[in-house]
Amino acid sequence: MTAISLSIDDLLKDEEYGLDLRMVSGEHGLSHRLYSSRIQKPGLALTGYTEHLHPDRLQVLGNTEISYMLQIPEQQAAASLSKLCSFPISCFIVTKGLDPPPMLRRETEKAGIPLLVTSLQSSTFISLITKFLEERLLPTTHVHGVLTDVLGVGVLLLGKSGIGKSECALDLVIRGHRLVADDVVFIKKKMPAALVGQAAETIQYHMEIRGLGIINIKDLFGVSSIREKKIIDMVLELVEWNPQQEYDRLGIDEKVHTILGIELPHLIIPVRPGRNLTSIIEVAARNYLLKGMGYHSAKEFHEKLMARMEIRPIGAEVE
């Protein structure tokens, strides 16, 4: 998978998170790429100790760092900055709207390292930029399927085209559950181990039903019938019923489906006339919630059955 990255220019263009950044110097470095959501305050690196410097991270300079540069002899500060800027620093950002010292402007311009300023306090900016980078740099993928919110459980329906995924989702919406995405589900990995799914912006709230065409769920059923995004909790795969295949009848052996390195509970639901798939999906969601509370119906039944077999006398008739 190709590594996801952002340019420093992407930070300047942000309008959603209110980073409030402006360019000061080092414009030639706006194409520098960011691959990590972590930031660093250089601290000791300004004194010349660069042992634990991470040049690939955003370097945030607050009141302490700027004050230190202004208080030490200019020659010493220039030497430390020259050494610091010899590393492939991605970007320097000065907080609190402080005016960067001329020597910092000079060295960053010479090294082609972007120097930005924000009016935000250091703590506020670090919180916002971390959320911004985490949102933009997390691994993503997409799958052909339908994502619904059933009783608060994110249920991802998979299966080949035409098997009835959208029809199941529509029936779930009619029963009071919520649609997240139909046809294509975009999935983003959230740390430490969660997958968030949502629809493509162009088809959000829409669903394709063969024979009806494209319908707008939000307009038909109201805002309570849709969600913009949802954590995916389980995967239900719809497959055509095959009389030659043995399907799970106890539910003891649990399968998993892996997306972006995260394992999700995986149920295979055979489809044939007469099976009420919507009810099955609802019960699967309820059963998932029950397991989350520590109750596993299939395992409890199996344990009770085994215990009864152990205490029954040999040769005893089954009641």
Structure write-up:
This protein folds into two domains: 6-137, 3-Layer(aba) Sandwich (Udp-n-acetylmuramoylalanyl-d-glutamate--2,6- Diaminopimelate Ligase, Chain: A, domain 1); 140-304, Rossmann fold (3-Layer(aba) Sandwich). The strands form five sheets. A six-stranded mixed β-sheet has the order 11-9-10-17-19-18. It has a five-stranded mixed β-sheet with strand order 2-7-6-5-4. It is elongated. It has nine helices and 19 strands. It has helices at residues 8-12, 63-71, 74-84, 102-111, 122-137, 165-174, 217-221, 277-292, 297-311; strands at 6-7, 21-25, 33-34, 39-40, 58-61, 92-94, 115-118, 140-144, 146-150, 153-158, 178-181, 184-190, 194-199, 206-209, 213-216, 229-231, 234-240, 255-259, 262-271. Strand 14 (206-209) and strand 15 (213-216) form a beta hairpin. It is α/β, with parallel strands linked by helices and 319 residues long.
Q: How do you describe this structure in short?
A:
30% of the residues lie in helices and 28% in strands. It has 319 residues and is α/β, with parallel strands linked by helices. The protein has 2 domains: 6-137, Udp-n-acetylmuramoylalanyl-d-glutamate--2,6- Diaminopimelate Ligase, Chain: A, domain 1 (3-Layer(aba) Sandwich); 140-304, 3-Layer(aba) Sandwich (Rossmann fold), CATH 3.40.50.300.
